[in-house]
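Worked example 2:
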Amino acid sequence: MVVPGPDTECQAGDNPKEDAVKRRPTLDAVTLPDQGFSHHAPIWWGNRFVLMIEAAGIAILIATYFYIRHNFDTWPPAKTQLPDLSIPTLNVAILVVSILPMWYAAKLAVKHDKAKVIGALLVACVVFGIAAAVLRILEFKAVHTRWNTNGYGAIVWSILAVHFAHIIAATFETLSIAILMFIGPVEEKSYVDVTANAIYWYFVALSWVGFYALLFLAPRFT
């Protein structure tokens, strides 16, 4: 009987655990897509974290608004006219309506539909964004106060300015994606960008609904 020494190689089957490790199934990731929609895409998570930061900034503005409000007996303060409703109401309507073409563009992007159709819908959103930006400039006059008049003017102008920056950012981002959809090259990640941009657009449009109620409607009932 031969006793194997330390240098003697073990034959297959002598160590079942080692054989099981060698036969462990592997996954070939080469055929998997490098992009995905919803939470499967890294940009989805980045977009959500950015929106959380922006939402926190908006919450701070709203809290500041109510803090300043409690320092005045009347709101708006005495000798300050109530803000006009015509232009802000038109602006909130434009932003809400702009959600429809953006939503449809995102829906087509998920299906990888024709890029030029998506581009045309995004151009429509850009037109809405430009219109909203122009109306925002007029809204600064519609509040009948200056940023340096008092606390009321400072917080109202701050809210208008911050949201104005969001309108400009969302419009330029949408324009850049629209141009890409027309001239290419259109890749898988381009469609993912459309859906991520749509979420930001919804945020900008719907946040103005809340600000509209806070700045232009609420003072009429206080």
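Residues 151-183 form the longest helix (33 residues). The two ends are 103 Å apart (CA to CA).
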